[in-house]
Amino acid sequence: MSDKNDHIKDLSRRHFLRNSAITGVAGAGIAGGFGAGAMMGSRPAEAASNNDHHVEPGELDEYYGFWSGGHSGEVRILGVPSMRELLRIPVFNVDSATGWGITNESKRVLGENAPLNGDTHHPKVSYTDARYDGRYCFINDKLNTRVARIRLDIMRADKIVTIPNVQAIHGLTLQRVPKTEDVFAVGEMIVPLNNNGQNMDDTSEYWTMMTCLDADTMEIKWQAIVDGNLDNCDTDYTGRFVAASCYNSSRGMTLPEMMGPERDWTVIFDVPAIEQAVANGNTTTLGDSPVPVVDAREQAHDGRNPFALYVPTPRSPHGVNTMPPEGKYCVVSGKLSPTCTVIEWSRVAEWFDGGLDDPRDTVVAEPEVGLGPLHTTFDDRGNAYTSLFLDSQVVKWNVEDAIRSYNGDEVNYIRDRIDVHYNIGHIKASLACSRDVDGKYLTALCKFSKDRFLPVGPMHAENDQLIDITGQQMKLVHDGPTYAEPHDALMIRADQLNPSQVYTRDDPYFAETVAMAEADGIELETANTVVRDGNKVRVYMTSVAPNFGLTEFRVKQGDEVTVVVTNMDNIADVSHGFAMVNHGINFEIHPQQTSSATFIAEKPGVHWYYCSWFCHALHMEMSGRMLVEPA
Ligand code: K7E
Ligand code: CUA
Q: CA–CA separation, 105 vs 542, rounded Å?
């Protein structure tokens, strides 16, 4: 426990980044925007807890947490409230343990010549009627402009799509009602519309787009060109709208140019109106992409833009979050403005239906919450919780009171503040993106951990903190070091997910491998044999602990060898691995799964293969030899 002096030290540490961050942007002429933030002093963390957050050894967690893995390119599953890391799901990265990026099955998902890294920010689990249905998790790749879908029964990606015509998919969100049919992916960086090198100098003709994908087929349905860039996004609870923040409405190329305007926008799309235009063929295409494109820029329309509403929003807004459980309001967090902008979704409908003239009439509150508001989450009692990057705090505020204050009433809408460690980015309360919001826990994903953990060299852990929000006052209950670099997280109840323990033999994930075996006349469940086809050799074997079906096979130098292993163990947790020494090959074969990998047998001689997942007392002996005859 820290004594008084520690606390003073703590204060000076926490203000270090705040001051340097303000200095950093002062050159762009916006320091004045940081005037009045704090309406209440900060408070050391302590309060009565109503939650028993301690998970004893052997006990199971109450929630599954889905964490992005940032520029590791993966998605992680944590148990909450223990914050124990349960699984890493490789998505855009190569993973030695699972063989992701090495097996033929994963390469089919990744696509040919796919970049083997990524930058994931926003994991989103699919909905039915705004409740988590446990089917899929979708994730963006900012680095290589992709969107992936993860099957939540086997916890493996089954589709990865590169988004054309835009650069850097950042924000990602899902249709909630009636269920997730549309996936919305935000293009962040502006580029020439037909980006072919012929038109790079006229930056006034750089644009970006909102992209909509079909959640079932993962085909791209449409794109909509917008003014400014786009950042984060969220949908409403009727299935009609998706809103995105825009932090560079001036479409600047450099930081000072991006900082120009007092106000940027929240851009809100009327999805049925865009779908109608697509159905009517009122679209164009760009370059060799067949995707239908609608023009949602203001200048493309005489008078009212039928596709997009641009709500002026103070200075570089960042997070966009719809308030559960009814989805009445959308809160846009100001980043460089100490405010959050509260937009009422029903007023957005009124605007599109012609009832409102001024886009700002959709705004029902703009509370001052503190310095550097990035993202907002909610409990089930009408309160919002906003992450304050510069203040290194979470601020709790009441949404209806903020609306009253905006209407001129003298009310203090701030309920509480708590210090976090340090410089928080995303924030997410349990089930807060769904109708089942329960107001129990909140994760604070802090960008800096500084002194919170043992130093491990120049690279420090991030710090995902857990905060109990059941009481009047927030209570910090856990520090959770994480590896580079989760941006967002979400929690769903443990009973909302039902992952498989054992594969079914007809799983589509390895269906193409099964089809290849059938073409070779092979029954995978029993075959232990080698099929030669010119210089292509297919080695089929089973695995049953502690044996591979083949303890040796013979090929010729220069052969292209495909090893196909089918794990006939049928007991949960008895996984095997196939590792070929000196060939860069290692992959998972879980119960009833078929996995395969292809490599060239370049070096004559004896090469051992072994099982790489501990499966049996004789696991070390589970091995065999590849005999490569000289050419
Ligand atoms: Cu705020 Cu990429 Cu969601 Cu990071 S984004 S913090
Ligand atoms: Cu099979 Cu270890």
A: 17
Q: Among 169, 318, 332, 390, say which to mutate for ligand 1: greatest number of ligand atoms within 8 Å of CB.
A: 318
Tell me the CA–centroid distance for residue 121 and ligand 1, in Å: 6
C-alpha 443/C-alpha 63 separation (Å) is: 12
Question: What are 156's two structure tokens?
Answer: 């493996």
Asked if residues 553 and 578 have their Cβ atoms less than 8 Å apart, the reply is: no
Point out the ligand 1 atom lying closest to the alpha carbon of residue 488.
3
Q: How confident is the model at residue 42 (pLDDT cuts 50, 70, 90)?
A: low
Of 459, 424, 471, 460, residue with least CA distance to 443: 424
β-sheet bridge partners, residue 539: 530, 563
Strand ranges inside 143-205, DSSP E:
146-151, 156-162, 167-174, 182-189, 191-192
Query: CA-to-CA distance for 516 and 20, rounded, in angstroms?
Result: 59
Which residues have CB under 6 Å of ligand 2? 545-546, 576, 611, 613-615, 619, 622
List the one residue out of 262, 411, 406, 249 whose CA is nearest residue 329: 406
CA of 594 to the centre of ligand 2 (A): 15
- pLDDT score recorded for residue 107: 98
Q: Would you state the structure tokens that stand for residue 190, as one six-digit string?
A: 């502006």
List pLDDT tens digits, range 378-396. 999 999 999 999 999 999 9
Residue that the structure tokens 């009441």 belong to: 398
Q: Let me know: does 609 contact 624? Beta carbons within 8 Å.
A: yes
CA-nearest residue, atom 1 of ligand 2: 576
With a cut of 70, say whether residue 12 has pLDDT above it. Answer: no
Could you tell me the CA-to-CA distances from 44 to 3, 9, 99 in Å, in that order? 11, 13, 46
Q: Which ligand is nearest to the CA of 579?
A: 2
- Please write the tens of the pLDDT for every residue from 235-245: 999 999 999 99
